[in-house]
Amino acid sequence: MKPTLVIMAAGMASRYGSLKQIQRFGPSGETIMDYSIYDALRAGFGKVVFIIRKQFANDFREIFEPRWKDRIAMEYVFQEMNSFLEGQAVPADRTKPWGTAHAVLCASTSVNEPFAVINADDFYGRDSFEKSSHFLLHEANDKTFSLIGYDLVKTLSENGSVSRGVCQVNAQGHLVGIAERTKIYMEDKRIVYEDDGRKVEVPSDSKVSMNFWCFTPAVFNICKALFDSFVARNIHNPKAELYVVDVGATFIGRPGNVLKVIPTSSSWFGVTYKEDAPGVESSIHELVRSGQYPVSLWG
Questions:
Q1: Is the backbone of residue 275 left (phi > 0), alpha (psi -120 to 50) or beta?
Q2: Rounded distance, CA 262 to CA 198, Å?
Q3: Would you call 167 helix, strand, or coil by DSSP?
Q4: Does residue 129 sit within a domain?
Q5: Does any domain span residue 267?
Q6: Which of 42, 52, 67, 142 could serve as a FRET partner for 225 with CA atoms 20 to 30 Å apart?
Q7: Cα(177)–Cα(187) distance, integer angstroms
Q8: How does pLDDT run across 202-248, given as a tens digit for each residue?
Q9: Measured at the alpha carbon of residue 7, what is the angle toward residues 209 and 271, in degrees to the nearest 5?
């Protein structure tokens, strides 16, 4: 059974200021997601599931179905404010989704096979998809998950702070700890994050999660239990989010579970801020010029 690629695209793009998931960066009008789908298809994935807001459904269908529907199966699931709230009312001041772990939970209605999950607005590179596909086909089981690990220093933005899941990895390459750091940036040639007003240095060679995870459907039970507990504690906190890194941390905390951190030679780049967009476009055009991607992904 071919693995599935789940693309999280329901974020409100609050820092970016527009629906960056469908911005065109490639020489023939490709979005970043087009490159992810292209890499996934040639790595052996059999289906793409978009996690989106219902209000954006027509935009996504108009852009992606003419390009890909004859090449790979496509489905849509909606991450809405009331999804999996079990009848609880959505607080009036909640204006953003409940977080990436909630997004993954929303995919449970359409995914029944091993799958990778990625962000819509991040470029991950061919090597990362090939390694994830191999893992999902040959190694993944309900006690063994993985994530693609990138070097922290290569994932910063010159235009502001970033959020990263900073990994602790043992000698076997297994994740032993992960923490979501929400304000990471370079200062005086060192990498720091802010925590309650303190600046804490992070080693530049730290591996970080860029939300490229490899799971089996067993992860949905973990997501549901964590989300129920999260909502009970945070229903009236409009800014609280439940992250996929929280799912990973819970998973490795259970006896016998292993989460491999798979290093990749791929370059990562993304569009956290509008000012990042020209650099992303330049990087993609350089990959095309070097022959790693065709001028048009659709021939």
A1: alpha
A2: 31
A3: strand
A4: yes
A5: yes
A6: 52
A7: 25
A8: 988 889 999 999 999 999 999 999 999 999 999 999 989 999 989 99
A9: 65
Give dist(CA 121, CA 138) in Å, integer: 28
Q: For 257-269, how does the pLDDT look when each residue is reduced to its tens digit (9 = 90+)?
A: 999 999 998 889 8
Neighbours of 141 (CB within 10 A): 10
Burial of 8 (0-12, 13-18, 19+ CB in 10 A): buried
Structurally, how many domains does the chain consist of?
Answer: 1
User: To which residue do tokens 């602790």 refer?
Assistant: 168
* Contact present, 101 and 246 (Cβ < 8 Å): yes
Tokens 């509008």 found at: 274
φ, ψ for residue 79 (rounded to 5)?
-95, 100
Pairing state of beta strands 269-270 and 122-123?
antiparallel
Separation of alpha carbons 252 and 229, rounded Å = 18
Q: In the structure encoding, which two tokens stand for residue 239, read together?
A: 């800014």
Question: Facing residues of 123 across strands?
Answer: 269
Give me the CATH number covering residue 141.
3.90.550.10
In the structure encoding, which two tokens stand for residue 9, read together?
A: 């695209």
Q: Give the number of other CB atoms < 10 A from CB of residue 254.
A: 9
Residue 89's identity, in one-letter code, is A
Please give the model's pTM, rounded to 2 decimal places. 0.91
